[in-house]
């Protein structure tokens, strides 16, 4: 559907696409970066590198829109998202084609990611009903209630791996709660959100309520530092999440910065081999492993050769491509080099490469291809067992006992997801009580909570002073509580302490 070289991306400020504010950015470097399709490594267009001047324009537009937007009823605001949801359905094919093109997902993965984005919109549509607050007569004639007040201009800095879904984690709840937003898409996948903001406008969203500023760290930092920005959410690598959280803390700004992940799954000897192998292969290779909830380490309790054999045969059956059941490329050359380096290092340290995705790199002439890779480790110190890779690689390690599996998982510095495969409720309970992760699964490959349950990890997978980014976590993050104490009936000599 797309020809190569789309029009270059523009920022979206005050309801229209605009060129960069100044002709040369403050960094003095190039103003546009090429955007490439991971399928063939060819340029599809260019993304602008915004400076503090562009950020100032976007924040000013969001600030100007805030009084009227926050003054509307929550039902009114949610009603616009209802129309937006219908437009997403109408344009789901186009949105998912854009995700395929710029991100490299398969068509069915892209469709699911758009549909998951719609689930987030649906939750925000329900907020008039579910975000109600408390009211209580606390003593005779005295009633307390609290109400939720929006923060003002909020910022969302998002990663490359889900170009529609992750921006909708924050955007949907933030605006229904009455905030206005400046969002910085990933410079690797800037096109899809340009369609999303057009659909928001078509749904009736007033100009300035949602703005897009494209670019890299310079734009992100200018957004964080801007005095009119009240709160910042981020999702990306732990290294950057930590830097952003610290920067916000210094400025006393509300921040939730989600980081990377290393998710461990345990297979007990009584697990269902067919289900476990199917789930794990789909989950570690799905979206080419570029999911913060992908299971990347399998700990088998004892030798489970039958399970490993099934994992190997199902992984080997996957073919490269963009169709159903196939697997797409990874995002760019840097990611491909990184994944290859980790596999090479594991091999050198004595691990057995049971399925070798590096053959795809050799076979495919163009694009960033590495196939599903299954590695059997014997050295517990191998980096692949501990560090985030963000690629289609499953590392398997045999442990002797449930206690050893838990100790291994608990020692991991991240804490996004963890899972157990078993046929025993008691075994499942043992692990769920002990996993050191925010999102846990029983017989589920990738335990992503669905609305109304909130999304968020622990430890190095989350920085900042709030817990979860979606669901009621998002409502809490994107609002302040105003507590009101009232007395309408005169009580003679009674005071509020009566
Ligand atoms: P990234 O950290 O490289 O970039 C994320 C965003 O931050 C981008 O918009 C980027 O332009 C910006 N950025 C990069 N460097 C910056 C800096 N020094 N200062 C300010 N902003 C900066 O992450 P990525 O490669 O786009 O995404 C992959 C990572 O995201 C993985 O680690 C994955 O686990 C993580 N992720 C986590 C979650 C979660 O919920 N925990 C969700 C999605 C992705």
Give a quick summary of the entry.
This protein is of the alpha/beta class and 498 residues long. Helices cover 38% and strands 21% of the residues. It has helices at residues 52-71, 74-90, 92-103, 107-125, 127-130, 165-176, 191-202, 217-225, 238-250, 273-285, 305-316, 333-348, 358-363, 402-410, 425-434, 471-477; strands spanning 11-13, 16-18, 32-36, 43-48, 135-139, 142-149, 153-157, 180-184, 210-212, 229-235, 254-258, 263-267, 295-301, 352-355, 373-377, 393-399, 417-421, 439-442, 462-464, 480-487.
Any overview of this molecule?
This protein is of the alpha/beta class and 498 residues long. The chain has two domains: 11-259 and 461-483, Aldehyde Dehydrogenase, Chain A, domain 1 (3-Layer(aba) Sandwich); 263-442, Aldehyde Dehydrogenase, Chain A, domain 2 (3-Layer(aba) Sandwich). It has helices spanning 52-71, 74-90, 92-103, 107-125, 127-130, 165-176, 191-202, 217-225, 238-250, 273-285, 305-316, 333-348, 358-363, 402-410, 425-434, 471-477, and strands at residues 11-13, 16-18, 32-36, 43-48, 135-139, 142-149, 153-157, 180-184, 210-212, 229-235, 254-258, 263-267, 295-301, 352-355, 373-377, 393-399, 417-421, 439-442, 462-464, 480-487. The strands form five sheets. It has a seven-stranded mixed β-sheet with strand order 14-15-16-13-12-17-18, sandwiched between helices. Strands 9-8-7-10-11-19 form a six-stranded mixed β-sheet, with helices on both faces. Bound molecules: nicotinamide-adenine-dinucleotide. GO terms for molecular function: methylmalonate-semialdehyde dehydrogenase (acylating, NAD) activity.
